[in-house]
Amino acid sequence: MTANVDTLLEALPYIKEFHGRTVVIKYGGAAMREEELREAFAADVVLLKYVGLNPVVIHGGGPEITRYMERLGLEVRFHQGLRVSDAETVEIARMVLVGKLNSEIVQRLNAHGQPAVGLSGEDGALFRVSPVPNADEVGFVGTVEHVDVDVLNHIAADYIPVIASTATDAEGNPHNVNADEVAGKVAAALDASKAIFLTDVEGWLDDPADHGSLISHATVTEVEQKLPAIDGGMRPKLQACVDAIGGGTKSAHIIDGRQPHSLLLELFTNAGIGTMVTP
């Protein structure tokens, strides 16, 4: 009993500090695949709303997109952490992200007691994209040029926004957009207090093969110095941390989504987990 009380008392100053603040959460990886973790995530986000925070959820769905592509006999390729996307790949991504995963996340949050609203980048022209600089290598992959914060602020006042990472360019052409980038750009546009990225590792590892090499804290300058040498899925996450903080977000966190309630541990305990990036 004492331990439970101590935990609540430890959380209290953080709840007071973040009350009324916006927290952007990138949801993906194992936290989306396992039933226990899906339930824990929904309960955590609903709790954040109940105690006075304004959570905004950005979700990917890479493993599910890959699964559908493989079932259809389509080649799955990545380049510098981005999915190589032809027109057919983009169509499948939109079907999976918007038609399946987004509605499932909204339903789960609703079931836990807080109303949520599902969106994609195309709803209300929420964000506009342009082709990434290396579009000749990755195809129809977009980079976020603009986020309409008015749309999000209206919704977040009463609901939990849940945003799928698809969008169109100025001509209305659909693009796949990396969910980490979306989260970083949305956090910057909203001047969020925190941006949190759930992933399938402990955080940013200095040596990806050594799980004991966790970098628990880094500055934006340190991240930018190391980014050119980083490949794979950690690269867009770290770039998104830089984007978020460059737009005014106070801190960005890469945490292990395989750990139940990792979101609450990062926000409301002294120790925290994962990697924190600060200005």
Annotate the secondary structure layout.
Layout: H1 2-18, E1 22-27, H2 30-33, H3 35-50, E2 54-59, H4 62-71, E3 78-79, E4 82-83, H5 87-111, E5 116-120, E6 127-131, H6 135-138, E7 141-147, H7 149-156, E8 160-164, E9 166-168, E10 174-177, H8 179-190, E11 194-199, E12 217-219, H9 220-226, H10 234-246, E13 251-256, H11 262-268, E14 275-278
What does this protein look like?
With 279 residues, this protein is α/β, with parallel strands linked by helices. Helices cover 44% and strands 23% of the residues. It has helices spanning 2-18, 30-33, 35-50, 62-71, 87-111, 135-138, 149-156, 179-190, 220-226, 234-246, 262-268, and strands at 22-27, 54-59, 78-79, 82-83, 116-120, 127-131, 141-147, 160-164, 166-168, 174-177, 194-199, 217-219, 251-256, 275-278. A hairpin with a 5-residue loop joins β9 and β10 (174-177). 45% of the residues are buried.
Task: Give a brief outline of the structure.
By secondary structure, the chain is of the alpha/beta class. The chain has helices at 2-18, 30-33, 35-50, 62-71, 87-111, 135-138, 149-156, 179-190, 220-226, 234-246, 262-268, and strands spanning 22-27, 54-59, 78-79, 82-83, 116-120, 127-131, 141-147, 160-164, 166-168, 174-177, 194-199, 217-219, 251-256, 275-278.
